[in-house]
Write a structure and sequence with these properties.
heterodimer; B: 473 residues; five-stranded parallel beta sheet; 16 strands; globular; disordered C terminus
Chain lengths: 214, 473
């Protein structure tokens, strides 16, 4: 329990922060409506903004709820190299320019849920805020492999993740600077966990996310 | 709220940015930004008065933005808004100069109150800036009267030392304008945005002068009921004018010498060493060298003060400046009292050739009194003589009878001419006006361009009672 306390505290702090922004907007417009009730355009705008922000809170809560309700992954023999190459080849040209593959071994075998691996790659790629970081690239490479498993390294060029802690980088809303919602790393971490894999974060070399397929 | 204050809203949440824009426009000019790393650049390229700053910003955290604002001395009032309840952030923000700190979701009214307070502060600062500028303009060198050789020499010397920290010693007879020169030094120097303070060492009792100069701590002596900040401290970075410095006691001279040497002192009754960077301009109407010889003034202090000596000659020794002074004071008081008084040529010549023992101050007083008291449009020599003779008799309230002027200068009807006080004149004028308007208070007040209330106050003040029979008692 003692070990969990700082993690829980950080989760609550992150959530607190995340919910207070839309709550500020909702509360502010509710207060403004009192003084601008005679302006139909403003009333309509306020109504839309309030609904939009309530939906935003709702979608974040739902997404967290859905992640916690994911079933345990299958433990099948899978070919990670093939899954990665298939992911890249099925992207369109404009998407492909954000991807780099290095040292992919198509023959390597691992155990786990191939759908979860696909989902992990999807979340990392589509969850990244490419619009504001167009000079970044997602480099996927294979690390050292041995009889106990294989390692896939996900590395975002030009993205500074120095603010993330190696011990709890995955906590919801710890990383909003480069990802669209801030839940992406948590989802990837949880999917890995459900598949019996391990996702770690290395802050020493290129801020790599290492997925260890046991 | 004033519409001309500019606010920059820095928040990565679109909804919050939109809300603040709707809340603050059009009371303020509003711009928004969603990243932290471009705020400083934006503040440098645009003149913003207020920054509403979220702490969790992409690119650069709000605390780091605040730190840069602090380090770069960017003059802006910052209101921190954050979703975090973290007290450390609040403390750090305030330490880094934030004006206020509010936690999301905040009441819009609370934010408006904070902004109202900031606007009041900015209004006051602007007012101070304008007033300082006005004061500065009053004391610009080119506003100082004088084109004589000695005055030109003074300007030439001052221009060389104006932006240095050199101590300046002004020597001149009473009334020659030493304080005006001291203010001109301050308001033309690079210290002008900092305070100018003056202290007349001849009018403050010696046992209080230490407290005036250096301040004191609460309870340091009987009557020290609270801490007092001394003029040295108030005028730090600015200028302290020590008038009639020859009147300082030997003890106080020693303390002053220490401040000049060490640039530090302790308040009376205090232990804390206070460092100051105050420029000293001292003045004396006595030759300090004579006092040094008589052991009444410390020689070392004299040399410390006398780094740049300025000698202001008496008015009689720069007669070519007198016509300039006459025009200057005439314009000044005509404007102040809404008059159009002129001085004829003979009177001007008389004024120019007069010895003026009281120097510029005396000349100014004479012209002020002429403007105030004369009922004619053009003043002639007789009026001037009348006033000057009165001064020379040194009998306040009585002037020498002068047939040539008794009927027009003060409108007197007796052989003995009395100078009337302003109050007496006002009372007389009120009585005449009341009589003219048949003792109708409202009509009289309206014609005198004062309110009924003021009229009643004046009647009370001068004990004028209007009886029902419409006569003044």
């Amino acid at each position: 329990m003692n070990d969990l306390t700082p993690v829980v505290e950080k989760i609550i702090r992150n959530f607190n922060h995340e919910l207070k922004n839309p709550l500020t907007t909702i509360k502010g417009y509710a207060q403004l409506l009192g003084s601008k009730a005679n302006d139909p355009q403003f009333v309509e705008k306020s109504r839309n903004i309030i609904i939009e922000n309530v939906d935003d809170i709702d979608s974040k809560m739902n997404r967290m709820y859905d992640i916690f309700n994911l079933p345990g992954g299958e433990r099948d023999a899978i070919n990670p190299g093939e899954i990665i190459e298939e992911f890249v080849s099925s992207r369109n040209e404009s998407e492909k320019r954000f991807l780099l593959l290095e040292n992919i071994n198509s023959a390597l075998q691992a155990t786990g849920d191939q759908n979860y691996l696909r989902r992990i790659i999807d979340v990392l790629f589509y969850g990244f805020d490419w619009i504001n970081h167009q000079d970044s690239r997602l480099k996927i490479s294979f690390g050292d492999n041995d009889s106990t498993g294989a390692t896939i390294a996900f590395c975002f060029d030009n993205a500074d993740f120095s603010h993330l802690a190696e011990t709890n980088f995955y906590l919801p809303f710890s990383e909003k600077r480069y990802f669209n919602t801030g839940i992406e790393l948590f989802e990837v971490f949880f999917l890995s966990y459900l598949s019996g894999w391990e996702l770690t974060f290395s802050s020493t070399i290129d801020y790599r996310f290492l997925l260890y397929l046991k | 709220m004033k519409p001309n204050y500019k606010i920059l809203i820095a928040d990565d949440e679109k909804g919050v940015r939109e809300l603040l824009k709707d809340l603050l426009f059009p009371s303020f000019e509003v711009e928004t930004i969603d990243r932290g790393d471009t705020i400083i650049e934006k503040l440098r390229s645009n003149l913003f008065d207020i920054l509403i700053l979220d702490l969790q910003l992409p690119g650069m955290y709000g605390i780091d933005v605040l730190r840069q604002i602090h380090e770069n001395k960017i003059n802006i009032a910052v209101v921190v808004i954050t979703a975090s309840n973290d007290i450390d952030n609040a403390i750090t923000s305030m330490k880094l100069g934030a004006y206020d700190y509010i936690v999301k979701p905040f009441d819009t009214d609370k934010l408006l109150v904070i902004l109202k307070n900031i606007v009041e502060k900015l209004d006051l600062e602007n007012e101070v800036t304008i007033l300082r500028k006005q004061i500065g303009e009053n004391f610009r060198f080119n506003n100082i009267i004088g084109d004589s050789e000695p005055i030109r020499k003074i300007f030439s010397t001052l221009e060389k030392v104006i932006d240095t920290d050199s101590t300046i010693l002004i020597i001149g007879d009473s009334g020659t304008g030493k304080e005006i020169i001291a203010k001109a030094i301050h308001y033309n120097s690079n210290r002008k945005q900092f305070p100018f303070r003056s202290i007349d060492c001849s009018t403050i009792p010696q046992d209080l002068i230490g407290s005036e100069l250096f301040g004191h701590e609460k309870g340091s002596f009987t009557g020290a009921i609270s801490r007092k900040i001394g003029k040295f401290e108030i005028a730090s970075k600015g200028t302290l004018f020590l008038d009639e410095i020859s009147n300082l006691s030997i003890d106080m001279q020693a303390k002053l010498l220490r401040v000049l040497q060490e640039k530090e002192f302790e308040r009376i009754g205090g232990n804390q060493i206070i460092k100051v960077n105050t420029r000293i301009v001292a003045a004396s109407n006595k030759d300090l060298r004579d006092l040094v010889k008589e052991n009444l003034f410390r020689e070392d202090l004299y040399y410390r003060l006398n780094v740049v000596p300025i000698y202001i000659p008496s008015l009689k020794d720069r007669k070519e400046d007198i016509p300039l002074f006459i025009d200057h004071f005439l314009n000044k008081y005509n404007l102040e009292y809404d008059r159009k008084l002129e001085i004829d040529l003979k009177a001007r010549l008389f004024l120019t050739n007069y010895d003026w023992p009281g120097n510029v101050r005396q000349l100014e007083n004479i012209i002020k009194r002429l403007v105030l008291l004369s009922t004619k449009k053009i003043v002639d020599i007789s009026h001037i003589k009348q006033l000057l003779e009165f001064e020379e008799t040194r009998q306040p309230g009585i002037i020498i009878n002068d047939d040539s002027s008794k009927d027009d200068l003060m409108e007197v009807d007796e052989e003995t001419v009395l100078i009337k006080s302003m109050d007496e004149m006002e009372k007389e004028h009120l009585e005449k006006a009341l009589h003219h308007f048949n003792y109708n208070i409202s009509i009289t007040a309206r014609n005198l361009k004062i309110s009924r209330k003021t009229m009643h106050n004046k009647l009370k003040k001068y004990n004028i009672v209007i009886k029902k029979s419409a006569e003044i008692k």
